[in-house]
Design brief:
528 residues, mainly alpha, Rossmann fold, five-stranded parallel β-sheet, two-stranded antiparallel ribbon, 13 helices, 7 strands, 5% strand, SGNH_hydro, GDSL-like lipase/acylhydrolase, transmembrane, membrane, transmembrane helix
Length: 528
């Protein structure tokens, strides 16, 4: 009889596996008991000599098996060594793993050279994640994190923790699926349309700048040689926290310096450059706090997501982004992880554990106690789980609502600021216009006043000149009058002197002359 009021609780896949292993263990214990009983019966009927002979035979057989296995292992090892690890991926397809999505092969049609205008990859509107089906990534621990956080397919990345670019071409790599590669075997089997190089932070404190640059150029040339139809993208070295754990190992000043070098090399070799620093760096020149993985050098899950989105949104021109990019997650095995340690990488035993945690490489803590979990789920547990899910959903909805409200407030604030700026600009323009008009009016008034002043001065000069001319005329007339008077006076004197010489003593003539003079006709008038 069912003691539950509702339907029987569902058994999870994990619980089914626990049941299966419990059954297997029970059967093995039963077989062990039966075998022990049979051996006891046999031992009772076998003598000492027969027992010794059987034991020796078992030892000889076991030793022979060990020798055969050692020989086979040695042959395989020598074969891999002689072929530089290339035979390991033979007959497995371009992806190296039948369970992995196959990277699309490059061709002459998909190959393009950058120009000065296209060297730096720019944002493409509506870019799709299907673009990554045509890409592979060569990198260090930062690329390892991209794989372990589930942003890149395991087999689409050739990367190792602590690796530097000078050692990259000669190193042997192992991915999470256990596949071993060299750069040569990887690129020859993964002729991807786009190859991203995400290296340079390890070894950035190289004492020789020439060594750093020359080894990077050699690596680029080797990649181009092994994948002649692939488009190569140099990814900028991402920023760090100058006060983080690796502050004595790498600083942003060095990163900026070598990023300039990478950009120049990309232009020189007509390949591409992706500036991920644009999204990772804060206004203070340091890595943004939300992208800091904790040690100042490596990135958090959010940081990896920001890099992933930036790559998708800034694709190489001409490469298709059709299809869906599906990440086949492969959990890393801590016992198989390869790491380059030492001064060049900045990794040591003291920070190794923390680094593994940042890289997403942790042991499965639930595996050891899985068998102790209950194989049934009660209604109370289901209800509790459901309540937790509803609570989580409610919290997510509240968070989303709060986020939306904050965005709306920010948009309103921004709009108000824009309106205020527009109003202020209009007022400034109006004030400038008014000022210009006032200056124009003042200028016109000044010009009118100046014209009036000049006119007055000209009129005054003309008047003064007329007065001077009038005075000169009068003076000339006066002088002429005086001259005439003097001439008349001189003539009158001569007449008087003539009359006296005639000796006229007749008293009647004098009145006659006097009468003529009284008539007002003077010599001057006669002259007139």
């Amino acid at each position: 009889m069912n003691r539950f009021k509702g339907p029987l609780p569902k058994i999870t896949l994990k619980e089914k596996r626990i049941h299966m292993w419990n059954d297997i263990f029970k059967k093995l214990r039963k077989i062990k008991r039966n075998t022990a009983r049979k051996l006891d019966n046999i031992m009772q009927h076998i003598g000492t000599k027969e027992l010794i002979a059987i034991s020796l035979g078992i030892v000889v057989i076991a030793f022979a098996v060990i020798l055969v296995m050692a020989h086979i292992s040695g042959v395989k090892k020598n074969s891999l060594s002689e072929n530089d690890g290339e035979n390991q991926i033979a007959n497995e397809g371009a992806s190296g793993d039948g369970n992995m999505p196959v990277v699309e092969i490059a061709s002459k049609e998909t190959k393009t050279e950058s120009t000065p205008d296209t060297t730096v990859l720019v944002k493409k509107e509506g870019a799709k994640e299907g673009y990554l089906n045509r890409c592979v990534f060569l990198g260090d621990s930062r690329t390892v994190a991209m794989v372990n956080y589930g942003f890149f397919n395991d087999d689409s990345a050739l990367a190792q923790i602590g690796i530097s670019h000078p050692a990259f071409a000669s190193n042997k790599f192992m991915n999470n699926a256990g596949k071993e590669y060299t750069m040569k075997s990887y690129l020859e089997s993964h002729q991807a349309q786009v190859i991203y190089i995400l290296l340079g932070v390890n070894g950035i404190n190289d004492s020789s700048e020439d060594h750093y640059k020359n080894t990077f150029i050699s690596l680029i040339d080797r990649v181009a040689e092994l994948a002649p139809n692939s488009n190569i993208v140099l990814v900028s070295i991402g920023p760090v926290d100058d006060n983080g754990r690796y502050k004595d190992y790498v600083q942003n000043a060095l990163i900026d310096k070598y990023n300039d070098f990478l950009l120049e090399i990309a232009k020189e070799k007509h390949i591409f450059y992706l500036d991920i620093s644009e999204v990772l760096k804060g206004s203070d020149g340091q890595v943004k706090s939300e992208y800091n993985g904790g040690d100042g050098l490596h990135y958090s899950g959010k940081g990896c997501e920001a890099i992933f989105n930036y790559i998708v949104e800034h694709p190489v021109p001409g490469i298709s982004d059709d299809g869906e990019y599906v990440v086949k997650y492969v959990k890393p095995d801590p016992n198989k992880v390869k790491v380059t340690t030492g001064d060049e990488s900045g990794i040591n035993e003291g920070n190794f554990g923390d680094l593994m945690d940042i890289m997403g490489i942790t042991e499965d803590q639930n595996a050891s106690d899985a068998s102790s979990q209950s194989s049934t789920v009660t209604e109370d547990e289901e209800a509790k789980k459901k309540a937790e899910e509803e609570k989580k959903k409610q919290e997510e909805e509240e968070e989303e609502a709060a986020k939306k409200k904050a965005e709306e407030e920010e948009a309103a604030k921004k709009k108000a600021e824009e309106e205020d700026a527009a109003k202020k600009k209009a007022e400034e323009e109006e004030a400038a216009k008014k000022k210009a008009e006032e200056e124009k009016a003042a200028k016109e008034k000044a010009e009118e006043e100046e014209a009036a002043r000049k006119k007055a001065e000209e009129e005054e000069a003309a008047r003064k000149k007329a007065e001077e001319e009038e005075a000169a005329r009068k003076k000339a007339e006066e002088e002429e009058r005086k001259k005439q008077e003097e001439s008349l006076n001189s003539g009158s004197t001569e007449n008087n002197e003539g009359n006296g010489d005639n000796g006229s003593g007749d008293g009647n003539e004098a009145p006659t002359s006097q009468s003529e003079g009284s008539s007002g006709q003077t010599p001057e008038d006669n002259g007139d």
